[in-house]
Queue: 3 jobs
Job 1
Amino acid sequence: MQEQRVIYLLQQRLSGNETSAEQEELYTLLEDDGNMEILMAALTDLMWQAPAGTEPVNTDARTALLQSITGTDLITPFVEVPAPVKTIYRFWWAAAITAGLLLATGLYFLLRPVATVKPAPALAQRYKNDIAPGGNKAMLTLADGSRIVLDEAQNDTLGQQGNTSIIKTQNGQVQYHAAGNTAVVTFNTLSTPRGGQYQLTLPDGTRVWLNAASSLHFPTAFTGSHRTVELTGEGYFEVAALPGKPFLVKANGADITVLGTHFNIMAYANEQAMAVTLLEGAVNVGRNGTVKKLLPGQQARITGNNSITVSGTDVQEAVAWKNGFFIFDRADITTVMRQLERWYDIEVVYEGAPPQMRFGGGMQRSLPLSGILRLLEKNGVLFKIEGRKITVLRS
């Protein structure tokens, strides 16, 4: 009942129909740390109902809102301190997510009324050369080695590979349209830089989202008994169902085999483990002769010793990047900063050992880098900013 009430109050706030009594009730709930988990769950549910990727019309209002969020303590933090690692759960992420929901609908508000706070001169000086978030950027390499910079290409037919046409659509995606039988199969590669992402539709209708610093090597037509592609980095797949013709993704020496399903593969070389997360359908994850079957809501993690561990997981966290968010669950600072490195195209170094903290929560990927760093600083993480080089200082 309590969670339903929280969702109702947040929906009233979002719609602008709340009464003064409902507003006061929401503020009271926000002040009580005992409601932390309920509020986090409610805000997460509302976040996934929001349209992803939409931008506010009034950028000045957005900037003012960001400054007020990052410059003021909105909610008293809830902190656990189990030795020797400190885990921090702040409600800054909830405030920012809710703000993001309203930005998508053209409304602007804060969870609690606060005065606009001007950053101190030293802080303003440090962030004077802010870094914008990543966006739709990718390079398409054709079979003959020629390259097309997709974010600069016109929305039109980009080329022909055998009987397959390559088209850039109005919404900035690339689609492969195969027509008739293909005698000779050629291969293309779509690659995203750090600070880039892109969406691709393969010749069989399979849709692929590539995260930053990733690539997909694929045929321009699927012939034979399998549909095989090769992934580096991270990608989300919605596989077109073709009975009798399995879809196979090769990544970091692992084989992920499906018939028709939705799943995410995180296979960055600098991460501690490769992760395959299943949202719909079923997949087989194999490596070095070991094969594990995943069911919806499960994740397979493959470590350097080639072991495959399957467990239940929060699929929303795994695909948050695709939907325009960072989400962390007890992540250490190095995990957080690796994601920021890829999305903001920055270099992160550490002064001594990284701070022993773990973070829970999320933020929109559309925020400038300063918005993320200021929130981390409120949790006691200190930075030195030199252009695109970010040094994490001793706490």
Job 2
Amino acid sequence: MKKILIVGATSAIATACARLWAEQGSEFFLVGRNEEKLQQTAADLRSRGAKVVNLHCMDSTNFDAHPEMLNKCLQALRQIDIALIAHGTLPEQKACEEYADLALQEFANNCTSVIALLTILANQLEVQRCGTLAVISSVAGDRGRPSNYLYGAAKAAISTFCEGLRARLFKVGVHVMDIKPGFVETPMTRGLPLPAALVVKPEKVAKCVIKAVDRNVATLYAPRFWSLIMLIIRCIPQPVFKRLNL
């Protein structure tokens, strides 16, 4: 039975992943900001076969709350086999260009709060000498595009942090996975002018994540075709790239 911590547990991708793990009889410690949504998620997971579901309300940008959350998680689960960090927001780029305080808040939502969590979780898994840290970043972090470079910068920082952390924890038997979804049909992307052919359901991403965790994949593009798309985008020369409206 897997013991799983999910931060941002009510997000669409996290919920889809949890449902698949629940079918395996996993035990969960769910963290989120909205208690009502957490309760709904917990009930859903129990109906799908989850053995035990523990809940904890926390704003991840409150760094001082992280140690208490981890302590309660360890009291409930005793050990963490998988930690999935899935919280985040999709900021409005134009607003972030105008208001520096908003830009910094969104960077905290999408980057520094994740790094803070990864730090204390990494130390715990290092003591355990086992487990997987899985983090949802984004293909947006592969290159700074004018349409979302604040969000992309946050995700790029996470991916770089994960790469170094992976090399550190590999020596003690702990795996770190960087998950890079493309366009996913979620409440966060609702209403955006996305190319329909490239938009997938959260369930499809979740299936990719579950398989990748079992295989200790380092960097997961979900779905896989995004690895080719982003390879092409990364190869566009800078003099050309800066003229594109991406």
Job 3
Amino acid sequence: MADCLTIAGREYQSRLLVGTGKYKDFAETAAALEASGTEIVTVAIRRVNLGQNPDEPNLLDALPPNRYTLLPNTAGCYSAEEAIRTLRLARELLDGHKLVKLEVLGDANTLFPNVLETLRAAEVLVKEGFDVMVYTSDDPIVARQLEEIGCCAIMPLASLIGSGMGILNPWNLQLIIEQSKVPVLVDAGVGTASDAAIAMELGCDGILMNTAIAGAQRPIQMARAMKLAVEAGREAFLAGRVPKKLYHGSPSSPTSGVIGKN
């Protein structure tokens, strides 16, 4: 049976979402996205030209619309008003596009989310008909509030954006996963393939990453590694791991009927 990721009523084969920033050029961006197998790509409306600057290279030229679902995001926004205005602009630029990623940052040093402003923005955007995927802290209460507002996916951080520190609080992530009725995707902090596999083994529905691929020494090779890690982690989660047994070993082969033993 197909194991699809469903977001806002649409099914996707890949559970890896990839950003389009920090690559050396659009050609490398396109090659890395292709290697990752992703179907959803994020674009920072405030930082990337999607047609608002007609005299500059347009990122959309490297992203075939029949190949990728665009996910406009509000990277660089520090207030609900900024984020709302940015996504309204995205809807105009992309002919009524509804699926968006909301992030409202708390400060420029940590890029930690401002959850109060995020909640304010989410409420307005959902009422305006946007399908909101939302970057947030790993606070289960805030995650629940965002889902109650009507966000179509909850995206808690694993660690700070761009830090590559991996999953620092798996317990909170599991609490969010267990309570949520919408997809939960790790957003921010993944540094390498093992981080991605662990997130998927915890039961996350997917992962969004940018720096881990674009900042690697060989981005295209890392994109392939992340694709395989997400797939392996998902398979392991579905298979169900053996329980951990502290101070208790269990032989791989059966002990009953061993020659020389009664």
